[in-house]
């Protein structure tokens, strides 16, 4: 339901009730001047009262809508903060693991290069590795 629909329903109902009241008054015969009839509100007064009721209903509905929106916004903000914290923690964890993997790969590569250099040095005459290998 849209807000404009919610605002118009009470006004339409008030006008419908007022028109029923007008037609009922028009159909009754006026009593003789013997006893004055109790003062009944006029159609204009009824419509004014119905309009006031519609305004009050709109205010109540608007307050409820504002409160619901604020609660929803707070929940969304809290969920966003929680999710952001989780994502940050996961990213830090992944970065740490990636750094460890890169560091280990670098050490293994360096060790491999050293052992390859040592093997090559053993075959070249006049190097310390070659002299050590002969002994």
How large a portion of the residues is in β-strands, by DSSP E?
under 5%
Strand segment tally: 0
Uncertain stretches of 5 or more adjacent residues = none
Main β sheet profile: none
Note the total helix count. Answer: 3
What is the radius of gyration? Answer: 45 Å
Find the structural class using helix and strand composition.
mainly alpha
Along the chain, the helix and strand elements come as: HHH
- Globally, the shape reads rod-shaped
- In which range does the helix fraction lie? over 70%
Give the distance, in angstroms, between the N- and C-terminal Cα atoms.
96 Å
Mean pLDDT: 84
Give a written overview of the molecule:
With 135 residues, the chain is mainly alpha-helical. It has a domain at 86-135. The chain is 84% helix and 0% strand. It contains 3 helices and no strands. The chain has helices at 3-27, 43-123, 128-134. The N and C termini lie far apart (96 Å).
What is shown here, in short?
With 135 residues, the chain is mostly helical. It has helices at 3-27, 43-123, 128-134.
Which terms summarize this structure?
135 residues; mainly alpha; rod-shaped
Provide the fold topology.
Blueprint: H1 3-27, H2 43-123, H3 128-134
Helix pairs in contact: 1-2, 2-3
């Amino acid at each position: 339901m849209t807000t404009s629909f919610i605002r118009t329903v009470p006004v339409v109902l008030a006008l419908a009730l007022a028109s029923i009241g007008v037609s009922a008054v028009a159909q009754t015969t006026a009593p003789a001047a013997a006893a004055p009839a109790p003062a009944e509100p006029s159609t204009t007064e009824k419509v004014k009262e119905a309009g006031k009721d519609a305004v009050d209903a709109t205010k109540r509905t608007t307050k409820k809508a504002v409160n619901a929106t604020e609660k929803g916004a707070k929940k969304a903000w809290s969920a966003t903060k929680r999710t952001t914290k989780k994502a940050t923690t996961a990213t830090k964890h992944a970065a740490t693991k990636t750094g460890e993997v890169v560091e280990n790969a670098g050490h293994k590569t360096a060790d491999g290069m050293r052992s390859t250099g040592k093997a090559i040095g053993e075959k070249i005459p006049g190097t310390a590795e070659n002299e050590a290998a002969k002994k």
